[in-house]
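Reviewers of the previous submission asked for a worked example of the structure-prediction workflow described in the proposal, so we include one complete record here. The input consisted solely of the amino acid sequence. No template or homolog information was supplied to the procedure at any stage.
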Amino acid sequence: MMTAITDSEIRLRGIEALIAALGEVQAERFISLMLREPFDYTQWQRKLWENADLETLSQQAMQYRRNQSHGA
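From that input alone, the workflow returned the following structure tokens.
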């Protein structure tokens, strides 16, 4: 069971994840882009997965979970 975390902790972890994935400069750039341009997360998610079938999504989710449980 996952422990509830505060909004401040979510923001901190999000920034840390962005910096780890993109580096400081690109993380700042990403944040600027998100603030500057309108962004509909729901629409983005629908487009992201629109050509994927359920079986493929399920396999990818299971692989991700296996990787997470093995520290990958």
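The chain is about 75% helix and 0% strand. We consider this example representative of the routine output the project will generate in years two and three.
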